[in-house]
Structure formats: structure tokens, C-alpha cells
Amino acid sequence: QKEVEQNSGPLSVPEGAIASLNCTYSDRGSQSFFWYRQYSGKSPELIMFIYSNGDKEDGRFTAQLNKASQYVSLLIRDSQPSDSATYLCAVNVPPGSARQLTFGSGTQLTVLP
Amino acid sequence: ETGVTQSPTHLIKTRGQQVTLRCSSQSGHNTVSWYQQALGQGPQFIFQYYREEENGRGNFPPRFSGLQFPNYSSELNVNALELDDSALYLCASSDAGAQNQPQHFGDGTRLSIL
Fold this sequence. Notes:
The complex is a heterodimer. Chain A is mostly beta strands. Chain A has strands spanning about 5, 10-15, 20-25, 35-40, 45-50, 55-60, 60-65, 70-75, 85-90, 100-105, 105-110. In chain A, strands 2, 4, 5, 9, 10 and 11 form a six-stranded mixed sheet that branches. Chain A is globular, with a radius of gyration of 14 Å. By secondary structure, chain B is mainly β. The model of chain B has no long low-confidence stretch (mean pLDDT about 95). In chain B, β4 and β5 form a beta hairpin. Chain B has no helices and eleven strands.
């Protein structure tokens, strides 16, 4: 079982719709969760991070964390063509070992004009 | 505030050669982490450096090695290059005192092995 799993997509949504990206993780001790956006040929860019159960909103982005079910999601409201990118879910390994990010393989999102 | 910078941007090598990639950490950050991202995959953790010592390593062979300097900048060295080493190499810096601090990546070095 992969440590961090994402639907690879591609996911297509029309402009103005809500895009929902999901991620599950295997280590119950994980404490920190991150969403990165990566445009083709570029490096990953941090867009959201969440540490506590529940929702965290930042502009058009909402991260949702459910530790009991071991999933984290990212909602993008009013999707724009400029949101078309690969979205990477990442999880910090628990304390006691070197801090490192474990990534999923990413979900490719296309927002259609 | 200067972010993470990496050099070179692109590099082409042949099998069996050796390569050195460089990373300058963000101001105030004392920890540097290196990742390898193959095409179509998420980044994979290679290792992390703190106080000039390796402080954690992923599932990479010993021919991947690194250094951290007193100014916290870092190098990634790869010996005996293989075709599968073709990837985007990413560096991220952070403050070891902030355990959950998000990591920000540099622009990366794209390494192509012929």
C-alpha cells in the first residue's frame, strides 16, 4: 500500500465549478498535511497546509482533514483555467524521525473555459 | 527575503558520469532537504541536512550523497549516473525549530542522462 494515495485523474471541471481533489494516507501518526500545485515544467508551489481536523479556508481554496478516516481533500471554488495544473498531496512523517514530505503521485486538473 | 535558489537550471550528462547540484537555503533556514521527481511522479525524499550532517535519508543508494556548508547551503552529488537518474531535483529549506513549518521548494534542476 502506498503511503499517500491520490486519484491520478485527469479531472476536468468547467470554469466556475468546484474542483474536489482527494488524498488518503496510511500512517495514523501523521500530523501535517500539505497541498502543492505544480504547473508543467515548474517546481511545486505550496498552496495550503492543515494540521487540525476540520476545514481551513484561504480564498478560493479549502483544505479538509479527517484524521479518523485518514483523508485530506482540497476544494477549489470558482475554478479558473489558470488552476489547471497537477495537485500534489504531501504528508509529514511523524516526529521521532527526520522531517520529510511523502508525496502522492498527483492529480492532474483541467479547468475548461 | 530571498527564497530557495538552485543551480544549474538544466544539466545534461551521460551514463557513468558524476554530477553536483547546488542549493542556497532561504534566509534564516538551517535545514535543507533534497527530493527527486521523475516524470509523472510525486517528489521522492532523498535526504535532509541539518548542522552540516545528514539527518534522515530516503530509499536512495549511497551513490547519492550530499554536503551542507556553514552558511546552510547544500550540494547533492550523484556518482555513476544511470538513465533512471533523469529527473527534476528539488531542494527545500526549513527551520529545524519549527517542526511543522511548510517547506518551500526552489525552482529545481532538471537533469537529463543520455
